[in-house]
Amino acid sequence: ALFVFFAFFLLSTTFGLLTSIIANIVQDSLESSRAFEKALKEIDRENRRSSGLRARKLLLLVDEDGDGDWTQNDLDRALENEEFVQILRHLEVPVMNS
Q1: How many CB atoms lie within 10 A of CB 87?
Q2: CA 96, chain centre distance (Å)
Q3: Backbone angles phi and psi of 12, in degrees to 5
Q4: How far apart, in whole angstroms, are the C-alpha atoms of residue 49 and residue 31?
């Protein structure tokens, strides 16, 4: 009877320790995954911001009279610029082929 008790004690203790170790590994993995996703979102936000700044610079260059108001002519000239079209696509702005 004493042997059965010690065997059960050893089995349940081992199971408890393994469960604790696995739980810690899973928790660390989840925390690392969350940190990685947060870093990816930050990188994406920074890329979008720099693309927006490049688009703004291109828009200012395409504005013919420099008053900040866009005419159809300005828009047509901007859409002829492949870099501008790529920036719009990167910013997920729909661009139709004309």
Answers
A1: 22
A2: 26
A3: -70, -35
A4: 27
> CA-to-CA distance for 93 and 6, rounded, in angstroms?
69
DSSP state of 17: H
* C-alpha span between 87 and 58 (Å, rounded): 10
How many whole angstroms separate alpha carbon 35 and alpha carbon 26? 14
Q: What is the pTM of this model?
A: 0.56
State which amino acid sits at residue 57: K
Range with the poorest average pLDDT among 6-10, 26-30, 62-66, 84-88: 62-66
Q: Tens digit of pLDDT for each residue in 24-63?
A: 999 999 999 999 999 999 999 998 898 888 878 777 777 7
Length of the chain: 98
CB within 8 Å of 59: residues ≥ 6 apart: 70, 78, 84
